[in-house]
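Blinded run. Sample ID left blank on purpose so nobody reads anything into the name before looking at the predicted structure. Input follows.
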Amino acid sequence: MEKMAESKIAHLCDLLDRANIAYYVDAEPLMADSEYDRLLRELAVLEEKFPALADPASPTQRVGGKPIAGFKQITHSRPMQSIDNTYEIETFRDWAARCEKTLGHPCDLVADPKIDGVAVSLRYVHGALEFAVTRGDGAVGDDVTENVRAIRAVPLRLSLGRKHSFAIPDVLEVRGEIYMPNAEFDRINIERAERSEPLLANARNATAGTLKSLDPAVAASRRLAFIAHGRGEIVGGPHIESHWDFLAALRDWGIPVNTLAVKCKTADEAIVAIESFAQQRGGLPFGVDGMVVRVNNFAEQELLGVTGKSPRWITAFKYPAQREVTTLVRVEWQVGKGGTLTPRATMEPVVVSGSTVRHATLHNIEEIRRKDIRIGDRVQVEKAGEVIPQVIGPVLSARVGTERSIEPPTECPSCGEPIIQEGPKLFCANPNCPAQFRERLKWFVGRDQMAIDGLGERLIDQLVDAKIVTQFADLFRLPREAMAKLESESVNKSGKVVQRRVGEKTVDAIIASANEARGRGLARVLASLGIRHLGTSASKTLARKYPNVDALMAATSQDLEGLEDIGQITATALAHDFADPAVKETFRQLAECGVVLDSKEFGHDAATAGSPNDPNPFRGKTIVLTGTLATFDRRVLTELLEQRGAKISGSVSAKTHIVIAGAEAGSKLARAQELGVEVWDENRLRAELDSSTHS
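Blinded prediction complete.
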């Protein structure tokens, strides 16, 4: 029986994998969805009966595993850089001309639609999916493997060559876009409407939210798709000389690519492709906001190199945003973490760039007055960057005389305190405003602030509503049993929304992360509290100047004025905030909970750098990180260096003191060598860090 089951399981796995490739890669379905689902259930029954025969890459593993506690971070082996955009044909011609001038000859180009999705990197080792990582900041992203495994378009194991017989590399990193097809977006919103739930704003945001869900079952229930468009690290495998051939290899390995990509011999041919595609993009089953055009030959790409943030061999032509007309019904004023009041328009529903829009930003009161936008106006709406809806202005010819002026509030809609205006912006000056506190909490726990994993926006709202968290310090004394009983929304295998308790394991992970966050130091705490005028850079400046929070609280506006990043207006505002009894009480409560309010950066400023007896080689130095660092997480390393008084820059210039170069360092290393900037490898870096730590 077991031998027969093993043969049947292998047959079903192969058949279902081929069905996925036929559907997502070849666009030639082998079977109906109902037949696929029947075979999948048959396979699941066999694997449950014979668990020793189950394969981690089995199609049944896409249904979504157990909820995860949080997302770990992974450093990209090769940075995922952004792409420069252009909106004008002449600017595109200029880009193509620069490429030809640098290379000394015309070059082949490849143009393909720019999918409006979420960028990810898939890493395959010996043909099996090892992990999937979001783009993040380009250097470090979030591990979303469990959610990506649930996407049928992503092969869990590469095929062994079906058409061109390309050998599978030992290591293959594929960059691409995960997106939500329009039909799936509409299906989800119809179901949410039937349940009287808020509708998803747009397909891209829905995709991002799905990938960042802690429950992989959510990703399994939402039929996301994937299209590959680039490469990361590749070890072994065939010698491939061009992007066009790389796309052929990806198809051969069972990875979906865009079938609308075209190869062009000249810039003029690429322009024809751009203009032709503009007419058909509205009829596609997924969102597209432009065309990506790249130099085809890999060797020529290397010759063209990269700038500080983008490759020179690729550009994205963005189409003008689609505009639609609807009626402005009302304006609400939302309070942000710094007290800023932002006007939010509610309109009659209108479809813009493939999704239904009901709300849009109006920016600020002066913008409303400048555009003379009124309640009841017919207004033009577009998506900025095809993502964020905004009101462009009123249709003056459509006015009938019943429209009403938009008047700004004189009192905060949350706390009732008076509103003040600074320039074009309105503020609630009450630091104890409930709406501000809620938004500040969400900011406080963020990855770039105190980094308390697992506390998403919805859970923060629940904690505040349940009065479990009434001040920042409460985040460091969360009641385990009460939190575990809170309910969160998830999607089961049938696609139905169910209420599920947060659970003790999730709570334990959150509490452990909060305990770790206690030791992040004064600079991180300052930048995390959401105090107006106090961002990351200014917080680090204050932490270098003052040894602890008590010394900072005693500083006057005159003491603060003149420090780097802090002028007269900021100094006055900060001195006022630091003197507020509520702010002082916040720091007292945090200290009582064991949060470290001593500065890790104290004394590490440029004024003390360079003396013969200074044991710290980083103090006052501008440092650039480039390439792949094998033994350092880039975020952690940045923080270590900044704590030692260094300033981390993204580009190399004559003012750069040190470039730290890892593997595959590119144009930044070349620029440093050209300017004669000192270059360290990882061995030198570790030695200097050890020396500065022990001295």
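Unblinding after everyone has recorded impressions. The chain has a mean pLDDT of 85.
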